[in-house]
């Protein structure tokens, strides 16, 4: 037996303006079995050029071994003709990334103006007579409708669909109800074809009823062991087959449980099964608990499992429960999840509160953290605060209490409890210190990643751990805190209230059996920022010919957004704008700084704060015109003269206001001689007044009188007393007589005539009695209308014996402002002369 080969030849008629000829475009050999010679054979070929565009012919011949027959006559298909333009093929489906040929056939006498694909002008090729062709490369799939192709006018054209052949994969078959098979697969990329040209599926030769999803159902017996399952996918662009082999008894995926009910009283969950076949299956069920977004998965197993009891649930919490199950033996996949059921557990007593304190002067604020939902175990009704013998109730949401009468003795023991419908929590105890905490110097710290990595030295008194609290340094607030277990000396401090560029104070307390003790303290920024505050009161002052004193006020601490490590002074010579000099001040305290070696010119000064993140806090510029040193003398002189004038004026005012005191101390007033009348005793029967003098034994008496006065002085010795009487006798006689009388008497008195005292010209200028150990001075003034006075000055109460005087001289003295003239005489041999 041999094989007969048939040869097929296809020709396309190609005509030109000059000649016409046939062009072979396809030749193919087909083998035919001799046993099948009685059958009718079919052969197909798709032309690249649509058959309507031009005539196509086909012929065939046979060959057996070395014998080849003649060609059969040509069988031709004539191209289309029309009176108006037409585009072929019509409504074709083309695969993406392929070349496709369109042709335009014009009516008699018509000219081709253009051919467009998706409104894009294309190159064309003349085929024959009124037939033209263009080749398009399909780069992208068509939209949900199609792409228009036309020539000369949009009215004459066609529509083409561009898409993909089926791309399905991963066929899997299983059973859900133990009575049918369910196969599903991945559809792959979309074909971009319309509904009439979408992919059709067949499972083991039977059409799948559902055309919109990637699964297919068929009723079968599941106890037939392992079987092959074939899925055929077909669309106008191609056909695809997927295969799977499975024993359905080992591929059971259970349906979702129904009527799931959960109870919060005993935390139990019940459900039902739709299929009775499930009641005899050994299954494992998964219970999912959802509580405030937290998922808890729990597994339970049993035959026909329909209820479970949940343990370890938080009191007074709301849960949502879902259930799914699968076969425990030959486990294939988890079944579908049931619908969720929500329930709430019963309340329980709250957990103990986290209590702390904040001391402000003589007041103490007791603070506690509000309990979370998992800690409160129900709705908190109130808080009970007890200290000493006092007790008070605080209602939520308040979580603090002020104690203003801190004891001066031992610190208060404060107890705080929380209460709900199930009861009260265990008491939380804190002891307020008897005295305020001693201040601690703060160490600088810089945060990272929105918090602080804090470490400290161990305290020997920290028997129950440490407490770290924090608050903005320059803002009044309620502190936040965290407790650290004993033996740990580091903590990561993080808070949602932390802000960048804000300085915080962190205090570390040692937890002791008594009151907490302040152990260490830190200050720092979570993240330092460039200074936003401005340096104030920048001033520049010239000192000398080449020195400038720069002073400023730093950024206030409450406005600082980073630690200031120093200040930088920039100064510019305004006469040379391109010049700039920098002077670094390595101190974080503002103040003054001398800049030396600065030539005389005009300058502009700016000060900036230096931080770890850069410079900032620029001051307003200040300008200074430096002058030569000689120009500084004029202000100095003016200031000196002004100071002297002010000082002189001040002294003058003080002297004027205190002139009496100045006069008494620098130039005291000399008192007038005063003669008091009570010193005189009237002499009865004579009309005279007598001045009594205590008897004594003078050694010498000198009497000085004015020679011009009209009265006279006489000495009268009466009753053992000496008296000096003013008469009109001459002074020398009186002087001699009085000296002679005093040399013999031991007492005496002066007498004055009444008419003599009344005379305006009568004066007794003075009497001097002198002895080396005894002095007596008498001053008198007798004027009209004036009183008479006598003031003695005695150094001793005993008078020595008088000594004889041989000679006496008189010395006149200038008259003072009252007309009083003092005269004295000195003997050549008297002690007064010496």
TrEMBL record:
GO terms for cellular component: plasma membrane. Gene3D superfamilies: Immunoglobulins. It is found in: Membrane. The chain crosses the membrane at residues 633-656. The keyword Transmembrane helix applies. It comes from the Eukaryota. One of its GO terms (molecular function) is cytokine receptor activity. It is a single-pass type I membrane protein. Its main location: membrane. Coiled coil: none annotated. Residues 256-348, 349-438, 534-629 form the Fibronectin type-III domain. Keywords: Disulfide bond, Glycoprotein, Membrane, Receptor, Repeat, Signal, Transmembrane, Transmembrane helix. PANTHER family: INTERLEUKIN-27 RECEPTOR SUBUNIT ALPHA (PTHR48423). Belongs to the type I cytokine receptor family. Type 2 subfamily. This is Leukemia inhibitory factor receptor-like isoform X3. It comes from Salvelinus namaycush.
